[in-house]
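In response to reviewer comment 3 from the previous cycle, which asked for concrete evidence that the modeling workflow produces usable outputs, we include below a single protein chain processed end to end. The sequence was submitted unchanged, and the resulting C-alpha cells are shown without manual editing.
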Amino acid sequence: MKTNTTKILPCAVFGHNYKRSKTNLDHTIELTCSHCDAVVVTDHHGNFDNITVANTQIKDTLQELYRLTRRIQKTKVYV
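The workflow returned the following C-alpha cells.
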C-alpha cells in the first residue's frame, strides 16, 4: 500500500478543498486545492476537467498559433 504524505492526507480522507484561483475569458473557472495544490478547470456546463501536463502544452500551443495567425495579416489579391 502506498503511503500518503501529510500534505495530501486531508484530500485523501475528506476530498479536495477547492478555491477559485482564476476566471478565464471564456467563462471557465480555474480552481486550486488549498491542501495539495491540485488544479482543475470547469467547463461551460460546470464539469471538472483535470489539468495535466499534456493539456497545458496543448493549450499553450493553441494560444501561440492563435497569436501567430492574428499577427500575420493575410494579403488580398485583386484581379
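The longest strand covers residues 18-23. We consider this sufficient to address the reviewer's concern, and the full set will be provided in the supplementary archive.
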